[in-house]
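Before the break, one more example. Copy the sequence into your notebook; we will annotate it together after we see the structure.
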Amino acid sequence: MADLTDEQRLRNEVERADQAAAVLKNPLFDEAFKKVEAEILLALEQTHDDVLTVKLATLFRCSRKYRNILSGVIETGKLAGIQLEEKQKRKLWSIS
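Here is what the structure looks like once it is written out:
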């Protein structure tokens, strides 16, 4: 695979951010994750087994991690968008 230029890499980051935002805004995704998290929390409240508590807590952290990863992709894309705008401004000023 050919190396991407800096501008292509930035555009890819912006595209990934758009995709991640679409996932997080998707009502079915949101519903599914809320249900999973609610079920895990309910199970945590009801268990008295230390081993199961640790496993459920790990599951809960993993479910949160998915959202955090997508949020990170969005933030990276926002920064990439700002960098692209700066590059475009510099190109305009260098042409003028």
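DSSP finds three helices and no strands in the chain. Residues 32 and 70 are 15 Å apart (CA to CA). Try to locate both features in your own notes.
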